[in-house]
Each structure stands twice: as structure tokens, then as C-alpha cells.
Amino acid sequence: MSRPSPESLVADVRNSAEGPSIGAFFDFDGTVIAGYSVVAFMRHHVTHLDIDVPTTVRTLAAAGGQALETEEDFKKFLGITLRTWVGRRPEELEKLGRQLFRDEIGPSVYPEAWRLVRAHLDRGHTVVLASSATRFQVEPAAEALGVDHTIYTAVEVGEDGRITGRPDGRSPYGEGKAAAVKEFAAAHQVDLDHSFAYSNGNEDVPFLATVGRPTAVNPSSGLRRAAAERGWPTIDFAGRPWTGPVEVARTVGTYAGMMGGFVTGLGLGLLGGSRRAGLNLGIGLGGDLSLLASGVTLDVVGGHHIWENQPAVFLFNHQSQLDVLVLGGLLRGNFAPVAKKELANNPMFGPLMRLLETAFIDRADNTQARKALEPAVERLRSGVSVVIAPEGTRSATPSPGRFKKGAFHLAMQAGVPVVPLVFRNTGEFMSRNAMVIHPGTVQVAVLPPIDVSTWDPADLDEHVEGVRRQYLETLAHWPGED
């Protein structure tokens, strides 16, 4: 039994045959994400008082995995879960699933799993999320990961369009998942002997055995024994770092350093008679002190593109609040942010962003958004760069979400280039909705400037998607590592 590293697993995929005849089947709970997606659903139901506590307790206890030794055990667990949805419409749970993935489940995606998925997609493989969970849990993840195929437990819907509380057919659990994979492979001309599969649970031994290249990921004790007996490789993903008193204290020091450094620098600049000089000094000093206190360092590739191309519209893929500190330490100054209007009322960042002359935009009001960008155009024309997250919000996974066009309109109007800043792993040190920062090295790639002066507005959607593809390509093939 081998114990490959995440990097060697990705390398094996990149050295494998190309094309859709090669399958890559990923279990979901515990393999792609840390923990169990059903927990987020149950927690939501309890918070909104639309589920009884005994049902929740039984579901969460079973979700720990210890109670699911047989397919019969799983059927009982599934029955408990589905009873909480009796009478609901599928559209309601689809909406809830997207919300919970964005806010809770998505940030628990293992970075190692994301990189494996991207590597398979890059090879043109047929990638499948294969789970015994329902589509309300699995499909939002598949969409965010760029995966087109899913295998899941179908839920019966009555003639009245409401969920009955029963599964629709056999669940893909244990032998059922193995059978579903074989059926999928036959329908999609996938060669299982040359395909890959990844899972963490005892019940998935038959599933893993369907392919020629199985890997036990974060394996349970039973799967670990089975993998040893069969000679399957095993790997344990690192997961999220532990939060303790030291990390909390560091985070407090980080925010204190950010605010203290900024106020000090601004004050010194004002004493010298220049508000812009004060802003630049404050940004640089605040960024340095906050990164020092947090234990975060920057590993930057292509940093010369920042200094050689100003003013510019700097884009960054938004993963967490840590991005703000990274931008301060990276750009040093001479920029003004563009941010959603909700940040104006943030007790920590709101006052700071007002001082930075931020253009606050209402994402729900296109007319207001265009008007709010007018001062940003003037700042660019006066020689001050602008920083904006083209997704408009923090992404739930390392994959950037759909880019909005505002940043590119801004650059075209001001006649300046777009410079992409690719943040590889800020979400690993501070997840989407977290408050605590963990120490480590944030990797940043500054891509060459993009001249938008010749772009035709009629082709803007295609151009914008091309820039997003540059982010995906850079994240999948980090400079200097291939």
C-alpha cells in the first residue's frame, strides 16, 4: 500500500491518458468536503424552528458515520433525513442547498480535492460526484467545482409537487453506488479499468473496486484495512488548521496592527500636507504590521507587473477577509477599492474603506452601480489605481465564480490595463465566513497586464470569461511548479 502526496496524485492524473473515456469518480462527504453536508441542513432547520429536535439528534448522530455499518443502516438514516423534508417543494430545497453550499459547505472543500478535480478536468476526463446524498446537497458543489455529472439519491416527489419523504429508487450506497457507477460508465462509454475513484468510507470498498485506479482518501479504519489488503494507495488531506487561543490572539493583534499602522501613516502624511501620501504610507504600514502580527507571509510571482503598469484596474479572486490584508501588503498604496455597499456598514472595515475613498456599489441596482463607478474612473485618470473583486463576493471554493463586467467597463472607460492578481490559498488560512486568521504563506501570482483598449463591447462576455479562464489555469498550474 502506497501513501502518495497530494502533489504526486495530481502528477499521476496529469500523466494519465486524456479524454472522456477516462472517468474520475469522487465521493462527496468526507472526501471532497470535510465532514457531512447533512449537518448544515439540519442546523439550518433547527435554527429556523422547522424541524423537531429528536429527529435532528438522530440524524446528526448517524451522520457521524459510526451508525452506518450496512446498507440497511443507511436506509434508516436516509428515512430520518427525508422525513424532515416531507411536504416541501424541491425548488425550496434547491435554493437552500445553494445557500448552504455558499455559506457553510463550500468553505469546507478540501483544497487537495479541488486540485485533483481540476487536474482531471484539465485532462478532459469525465468527472463525476458520486454520493449517496441527495441532489440538494451534491449539485451545488458540482456546479461550483465545474463538474457536469452527478450520482445521488433521488427523492420521490408526489403528484402535488411536494416531497413524499421516500427515496425514488435505489440509493447509491455500498453495492448500490458500485452498480450506479457501472451503469453510468456503460451509458457514457467510460473505461472503468483505466478510470479513477476516490472515497473515505468503509461502505465504498465496492465503489472503489469498480475502477482500475482507486485511492482511499481520509480513510476510515475499515477502509484503511481494506486498502492495505488490496494494495490501494491511501492519503489523508490536511484539512483546516485548528483554531486555538494563540490564533485568536494573533488575529486581534492583526486588526490592531492594521488600524494602528494605517492611522499612523495617514497622520504622518497629513502632517506633510498630502492626503494621498498619507493614504499610501498608511496602507503600506498597516499591511506590514497586520501581516507580521498574523504570521502570514507573501510568496509573490510576477510582482514586477504591479509596479510597471500603474495606474491599472487590479483584479483579485476573493476568498476571505484575509484578502484585504494581502492587498495592503502587496500593493502598498496608490489605489482605491471598489466594494459592495454592505461593507460601508462593517464596523471593522467600513471606516477604513471610507478613508480609502472606496466606491461602494449596489449589486442589485445596475444603474446605481454604474453611477458609483464614475469616481473610480476619475481616480484612474488622475493616476490612482483601482482594486476590485470581479466576482462581486467571496467564492465558496478555490474556483473563482462568474466574473461581472463592471471592472472591465471601468478599465475601458479610463483607458488603463487590467492586471490580474491570483490568490492561491487565502481561503486556507481564513475561510469564507471565518473571523480568525491562521499563519502561513499566501501564494500570489501577478499576471501580465491585459490591454482592453481594443475590446469590442459586443464581445465583452467572451473577453471576461477568457480572463476568468486565466485564473483557473493559473490556479491549476501554478507558475514554477509544473
UniProtKB/TrEMBL annotation:
- Could you list this entry's UniProt keywords, alphabetically sorted: Acyltransferase, Hydrolase, Lipid biosynthesis, Lipid metabolism, Phospholipid biosynthesis, Phospholipid metabolism, Transferase
The kind of enzyme this is, by top-level EC class, is transferase
Q: What is known of its domains?
A: The HXXXXD motif is essential for acyltransferase activity and may constitute the binding site for the phosphate moiety of the glycerol-3-phosphate.
Coiled coil segments of this chain: none
Pfam families assigned to the protein according to its UniProt record, in alphabetical order: Acyltransferase, HAD
Q: Does the keyword Lipid metabolism apply?
A: yes
Q: In which family does this protein belong, per the annotation? A: Belongs to the 1-acyl-sn-glycerol-3-phosphate acyltransferase family.
Protein name in UniProt: 1-acyl-sn-glycerol-3-phosphate acyltransferase
What is the E.C. number? 2.3.1.51
> Which transformation does this protein catalyse, written as a reaction?
a 1-acyl-sn-glycero-3-phosphate + an acyl-CoA = a 1,2-diacyl-sn-glycero-3-phosphate + CoA
Q: What GO annotations for molecular function exist for this entry?
A: hydrolase activity
Indicate the segments forming the Phospholipid/glycerol acyltransferase domain, all copies.
312-426
Q: Which PANTHER family match?
A: 1-ACYL-SN-GLYCEROL-3-PHOSPHATE ACYLTRANSFERASE (PTHR10434), PHOSPHOLIPID_GLYCEROL ACYLTRANSFERASE DOMAIN-CONTAINING PROTEIN (PTHR10434:SF66)
| Source organism, top-level taxon | Bacteria
